[in-house]
Hints:
heterodimer, A: 0% strand, disordered C terminus, B: alpha/beta, Rossmann fold, 2 domains, eight-stranded mixed beta sheet, 12 strands, 49% helix
Amino acid sequence: MTYEVEIGALRAAAAAARAAGDQVATIHPGDVLRAAGGAIPHSGSAAAISEVAGVLERRVTDWVGAARQYAGTLEGNAAQYAHDDRLAAAAFASPPNTAPSLPVRPAGARTKGPLVVAQAPTSVPAAPSKYLRLGPVPE
Amino acid sequence: MPLTWGDILQWHPAALDSAEAALRAARNACTDRAGDLDGMATPKGWSGDAADNASVSLRRLTGELRDLVAQVSAAYTAVRDAADGVRGVESAVRTALDHAHAGEFAIDADGTVRDLRPQMCLSNTHDWLLIQQERQDRLGECALRVEAALRKAADVDADLGAVLAKILAGTIKGGDGSLGAAAASGEAMGRHSVLPPPGHGSPAENAAWWASLSADEREEVIGAHPEWIGNRDGVEFAARDRANRLLLDRRRAHVDERWAILERFCHDENGRFIYGNYLQVKAEYEDLKEERESIATLGAILARPGAHALLGLDFTTERTQAIVANGDVDHADHVAVFTPGLTSTVAGMGGYDSDMAALKLRTEGELFRRGEQGTVATVTWLGYQAPQWSTIFTSNSVASSGAAEAGGASLANFYRGINAARPTDPDLTALGHSYGSTTTGYALQQAGVDVDRAIFFGSPGLGTSSLDTLAIRSGAAYYAEAKWDGVGDLAAFGADPTGMKGMQHLQTGAATTPDGRAWEGIIGHLDYLKDGSTSQYSMAQVVGGHPDSAVHGKNVGLTDPISAQDWYPEWLK
Lengths: 139, 573
């Protein structure tokens, strides 16, 4: 597995997560479910239906948020790896005593600190991955 | 707060149907993301802490989506079944209102049923009491339907509430499998159970229960629980027929399997019969033999042309019991229920069924001649243990009224069930032959049977000596007795019907009706239903609601009671 493929795979995984989040975000079980209580007025479950509608909506929203966060993290990692790759390539290609050029900062990528995969919602800061072998994260 | 009649009048499934559709779409939108979940996986070669954390996040996301799918699926099936249940409530409400309307009752918002019809005054005390009883029964039936609707509504509410509570508590989980598996698991957890029938329910209670089921729930009962309704008086007969045909097929398969096993056990490899082995399984062998013959007869009857229906089937009794109809009992204008007597068996039921088919045709033919379009259904009711010669010295003996009394109770429920299962009562005639007339007599001594007319023939007694004890109107009891029918003179169970005060007598000898048609006379005990006979013609007129057109007259012999003789003064009876 090459470095380029890993970055592509990360981006693909991020895209899949974002697509899943976007798709699930389109569902709104709450509205119709709340209205369903009107089918059985004065029943105990009519009130519970409303409550369930709220809970399901919240769970949908939470999941969508988590999926998007996961996607964002993978995208960030992919961008960071791409950035590192360019830096490393530039370092090897530059003549001696030539000051390195300022790397282009990829959108959404970290420019400081170790690579971290943020977790939703109780993420623990991650240690640098094996990809760091290709070069230090720029300060 | 328990639900009230006023509450459930406002119940309509439309909003639940909309929610069901939306939840199904939501469930599908989630399960359709299965591919994305696979795609969301981190690259295989990726390792290290970031990769580990990404995997943890992914596992959590996947698990939460599975749970969400399961919960949405549970909500979907719960709402779907609730919508179906509300349709059942609507059905129950509608039938209760129909009953109230037809019977001139009012149902208050709290479910109280009030009689709107002014009391009738009749000079005949027997008939007045009968009408009062019928009125009370109808009011009670209407009240039962209100109760059934409320019970159904409470059941729907409880079932839906239980699933919703689980969703709220987060106890519905999607497991570790695919999203499809999570959806299936959630659907199963959201499913409502069908409200089972009332235990030992009366025909009116059973009818009210059946009315409270939606069309889908009824299909589920027929397919998954046919034993619930096969013999349940008050349930519509078309459903009973379908359930009993299923049960008949199942029993046939069971009997054939056991029969093959016993056959192998009772024969050696050369096909020689092993008597010793036979003796070990003799009891089961005899039972299976009786059942095989019964099943074969019923199969043959049901395969006959015409609308046959299997309205009752019972293999749990010593001898198989069955109820077979010619025609549509749910909708026929005129229904006749024939109860045969001594030595009657299901295996030998084919002849009775032919007689009932002929009586149906005769009745319809006579109605047609009058320019009436009335439809007719005839039933052979063998829902009891008719005595056999082999049981002559047992409690089930023909000499004892035990079988007739027990059978009478069941038969009374069958009559009640006919009226309860239908929105409008048919014109109902009870027919009883021989010991079956005794059974019929006992059935008619019970309240609430709502039988319009009864014809007894070749009767050893009706289990009573007075027609006043029968729950039929004055002048609605008919008796036919042929010459040389010794059974008709036994008077073994109450007075000889030939001499009973108030009995109407049907001619059994040859006769010519005013339209010039000649009818054949019969003699002996067995030919009352013979096609083309005077007695069959008269029965057709009575069953068709035109008893005045029957050929009246009695064949009193020396063995008949003195009070039955033509010369005996009426005032001494």
